[in-house]
Amino acid sequence: MTTTTTMTKHPSKAECLQILKDYGTPPHVVGHCKSVAAVASKLGEALNRNGGTKAAPVSEITLLRCTRPDDIVRTYYAQKEGENEAFPPRPFDLDLVLAAGLLHDMARVEENHWDVAADYCAAHGFFEEEKVVRPHMMYEFVNDADHLTEIDLVSLGDRLTLEDRYAGIDDRMDYIIKKAERNGHPEAKDRILAKKEQTKVLLADIERRIGSIDELMENLIYD
């Protein structure tokens, strides 16, 4: 009988940077990817020092589909109700957080860049990275800081980063609103502001566990 072994190795930081170089990711986007990876990793480290997570491993997260208000069917990952009960508390997989953070926007200049990057990860055997990368543009965060996954950390890192530096939720969302207006979508403002308030609730819950995120990100090393 043949036994199938699931690949668990994540590409290293050096390997991810080489992937970005070989793929032709623009330097300013590489800077953004480094920042997201650094912010997400820092959050994961702090949370690991304070009990880790009660969430299921990414390998066990269920693929769901949801329809957005614009009637476009999006794909994202979420935990089913009660799914975590079978899993004990665990530390975040920081190797996964780092790799997925570095690769999440590798195809940003392409249409549907999240799917392009996720497909690349899957084609190269980085199946958990695929699960983190694919939903990062429209991911629905979990409701509390005790059940975060690596998907949440990378998505949070993205929403707290302004290009290549940690900026915090206010500056980041203000930038997104102005960008939407410049691109002729002023109607997006209300949706973005609602998402911002939801994210701030989660960030406050995270700070309940680890203290000030702004202070945590002081002197953050991005390279």
Summarize the structure.
By secondary structure, the protein is mainly alpha-helical. Helix content is 50%, strand content 7%. The protein has one domain.
Task: Explain what this protein looks like in three dimensions.
The protein is mainly α. It has one domain (13-216). It contains 9 helices and 4 strands; from the N terminus they run H-H-E-E-H-H-H-H-E-E-H-H-H. The strands form 2 sheets. Strands 1-2 form a two-stranded antiparallel ribbon. A two-stranded antiparallel ribbon has the order 3-4. The longest helix has 23 residues, at 188-210. The chain is globular and about 45 Å long. The termini are far apart. Mean pLDDT is 86; it is low at 1-7 and 65-77.
Order of strands across the widest beta sheet?
1-2
Oligomer: single chain
Pick out the low-confidence regions.
Answer: 1-7, 65-77
How many structural domains can be distinguished in the coordinates? 1
**What is the ordering of alpha helices and beta strands?**
HHEEHHHHEEHHH
Compute the average pLDDT: 86
Q: Any idea what the radius of gyration is?
A: 17 Å
Helix-and-strand structural type: mainly alpha
Strand content: 5-15%
